[in-house]
Specification:
Chains A, B: It is found in: Cytoplasm. The structure is a homodimer. Chain A contains 7 helices and 3 strands. The first copy, chain A, has about 140 residues and is mainly alpha-helical. Chain B binds a DNA duplex (30 and 30 nucleotides) through α1, α2 and α4.
Chain lengths: ~140, ~140
Amino acid sequence: MSTNLLLEKQLCFRLYSLNKLMCRLYAPILKDLDLTYPQYLAMLVLWQNMKGISVKDLGNQLDLDSGTLSPLLKRMEARGLLIRVRQSSDERVVIIKLTKEGKALKQSAEHIPGEMFAVTGLTPEKLFSLNQDLDQLMANING
Amino acid sequence: MSTNLLLEKQLCFRLYSLNKLMCRLYAPILKDLDLTYPQYLAMLVLWQNMKGISVKDLGNQLDLDSGTLSPLLKRMEARGLLIRVRQSSDERVVIIKLTKEGKALKQSAEHIPGEMFAVTGLTPEKLFSLNQDLDQLMANING
DNA sequence: TGAAATTTAATTGCGCACAACTCATTTTTT
DNA sequence: AAAAAATGAGTTGTGCGCAATTAAATTTCA
């Protein structure tokens, strides 16, 4: 009478719990920047695309669809972090461009990765191999 | 001019993406049982506590507070999976008990863990060590 | 004993995440 | 060129996840 339906055995539950834990760790730090966790992830992409990026390409990098991104970007626009511009060569495409304020916020965020790395209590090598394992898992699943 | 603010470097983004990916993998399978992913996680705990469990203890195991659990359990009660009973020895406590239907659903879920394991493309040893690494990370963070 | 503090669950409000759908624009096909 | 298909973004509705608050019951302790 054995079962595999045990919470402690589930990889999925560990990912679920750790993701929530990460959100909670970031929340107080991001509050100083007036950003939510998903907004911070979006800013990481936008800081790498200072010339602008389409909603579609942003969604591909974040693995999010327009149903999530549209209202999220609307809120970020309302906070003055970015603007939306229709692409004249293809009117369907909306380009997201950071404002001065959005670009400037990068400086205030530079300390975050180091701070979070410290919290993980991992060696750089261990972090690297864990990242690799997770990438492998993702690749297997998306196979 | 190097920065650590790169999405691809972030452990947190991998956990965020993999968790969403897991949800999407489970969704179609759980749809057959008319369960959402968080409801499935709750059922895992309830199937291990057939005599009943308090909302507080359930929340401790799932790492969820009553703000999330109360409406979730309400929906599951409406679906006929469980009932809520006030504990007579301490009227603050609400005990969650599975109905016959809730208990019976376990049989229909027995195939899920094996199916999901196959999708990960991991060896049993690799899965075990990944689970260990994630447990270690969680322990480090929770200090 | 009686007031204060604690505990437990529920409620409210907000921001994702996503399915399903709409709408406008562009591309493909015939 | 006209019809059909595909594409990109937005809207609607549902279900979490969590902070903040409320309300009731219990425990603490002055």
